[in-house]
């Protein structure tokens, strides 16, 4: 998986971007953009993606967790992780089908999970028992800092953005799920178990 600094600094529009009390400064530009589009009467459909499931490969030691049976991570709130492929399919369906002008659609996975749920999904996908081991916030941020690629660490705001995403998740800001992917594409959104299963060989170190 290739990870860009932009995945932290400039993702597509995100869930709850329009919430005026959302504490993430990163979302200010999205909220302001939505406000400008609304004020100008631009015919637009806004797709607000939840956190990409693929980001877990970067922010958590998944393969290590499968090998050891332990997923060390700070406790967090539930997150409706969604795959990039599902986001792309939803966007393509909107472009091809039309009929969604003026709508704000949250694009999410089928269920919101916490860290214990991530560990359970890993176990189901690989056939190996994995359980969650709690870390402090300081321990988790130090581990994340060490794991991020150099190009992400070198970006001016990427590291703090990564920490901000983690803190916002713990506060419940990404605890959002909808059936928008299925309504738009006719196919249910990919579950975290199925996402991990598609990468089973990598997770097992095969």
TrEMBL record:
Q: Origin, by domain of life? A: Bacteria
Q: Which InterPro entries does this UniProt record tie to the protein?
A: NAD(P)-bd_dom_sf, NmrA-type_oxidoreductase
Protein name stated in the entry: NmrA-like domain-containing protein
Organism name: Goodfellowiella coeruleoviolacea
């Amino acid at each position: 998986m290739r990870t860009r600094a932009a995945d932290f600094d400039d993702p597509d529009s995100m869930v709850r971007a329009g919430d005026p009390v959302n504490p993430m400064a990163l979302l200010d530009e999205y909220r302001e953009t939505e406000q400008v589009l609304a004020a100008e009467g631009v015919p637009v459909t806004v797709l607000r993606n939840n956190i990409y499931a693929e980001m877990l490969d970067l922010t958590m030691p998944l393969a290590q967790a499968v090998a050891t049976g332990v997923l060390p991570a700070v406790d967090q709130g539930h997150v409706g992780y969604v795959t990039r492929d599902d986001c792309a399919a939803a966007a393509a369906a909107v472009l091809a089908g039309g009929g969604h002008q003026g709508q704000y659609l949250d694009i999410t996975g089928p269920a919101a999970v916490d860290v214990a749920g991530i560990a359970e999904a890993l176990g189901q996908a690989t056939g190996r028992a994995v359980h969650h081991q709690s870390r402090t916030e300081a321990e988790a941020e130090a581990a994340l800092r060490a794991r991020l690629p150099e190009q992400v660490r070198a970006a001016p705001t990427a590291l703090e953005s990564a920490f901000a995403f983690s803190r916002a998740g713990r506060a419940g800001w990404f605890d959002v799920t909808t059936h928008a992917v299925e309504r738009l594409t006719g196919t249910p959104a990919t579950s975290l178990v199925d996402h991990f299963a598609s990468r089973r060989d990598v997770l097992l170190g095969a």
